[in-house]
Amino acid sequence: MRKKIVAGNWKMNLDYSEGLALFSEITNMVKDEVTGKQQAVVCSPFIHLHSLVQMAKGYDKVSVGAQNAHQAESGAYTGEVSAKMLKSIGVEYVILGHSERRQYFHESNELLAKKTDTALANGLKPIFCIGETLEERNSEIHFQVIKDQLVEGLFHLSAEQFTKIVIAYEPVWAIGTGLTATADQAQEIHAFIRAEIAAKYDQQIANDTTILYGGSCNPKNAPELFAQPDIDGGLIGGASLKSRDFVDILKVFNA
Ligand code: PGA
Known about the structure:
Elements: E1 5-9, H1 16-33, E2 39-43, H2 46-56, E3 62-66, H3 83-88, E4 93-96, H4 99-104, H5 109-121, E5 125-130, H6 134-138, H7 142-153, H8 159-162, E6 166-169, H9 183-200, H10 203-208, E7 211-214, H11 222-226, E8 233-236, H12 243-250
Parallel strand pairs: 1-2, 1-8, 2-3, 3-4, 4-5, 5-6, 6-7, 7-8
2-phosphoglycolic acid (PGA) binds next to strand 8.
């Protein structure tokens, strides 16, 4: 059975003490309220990561992730952080290819393929984001865009490597806009992604791949989205900055 995951993406929000306070609320609520096998992953800015990893000890339902990592192992890349550095402080996950990074930092599928290789080589689990813009959906090329993102970003991986990947489908038009894909729209794409994985690897690997939905996900719409057969959780932006909302979304998977 594939893992159910609710990942929070704090983006560039919260100073150090605010981040620690929020994380402490989240771990306490998870301990008291989460009763299933679901996993929370909190993806904070780099400055919080070391402390969050320490604070997460003893809370096996809460993992810590970064929001980016460089494609090179090390070297003269002023201002960057490597996968090896993240691993060395106990970070488990890393978001790669978020649409904001594709848009503002010009991250291409080709670059993201390299980032994925480096993250995997250093023992990090990528949460690999894909999704179409509104323009692409309106031009009805969204399936092709998503297929290209999969093929160019991930399908060079061996089957063994691919089992470490979590995919997040995030329609760009739904991120931070309050516009959510309907459960049917999201399910349609998630089923497509799973079918592409089955065609490239095999049905077992496709069945075992966790595919998250992201884009204005909140405690109100999460139950319907997560009830879809191919939606295995969410990547949560805005609502992950409120402990109550984030944990309520996580609790949709309570046993
Ligand atoms: P949102 O962001 O939940 O604020 O729409 C989701 C994301 O960007 O991962």
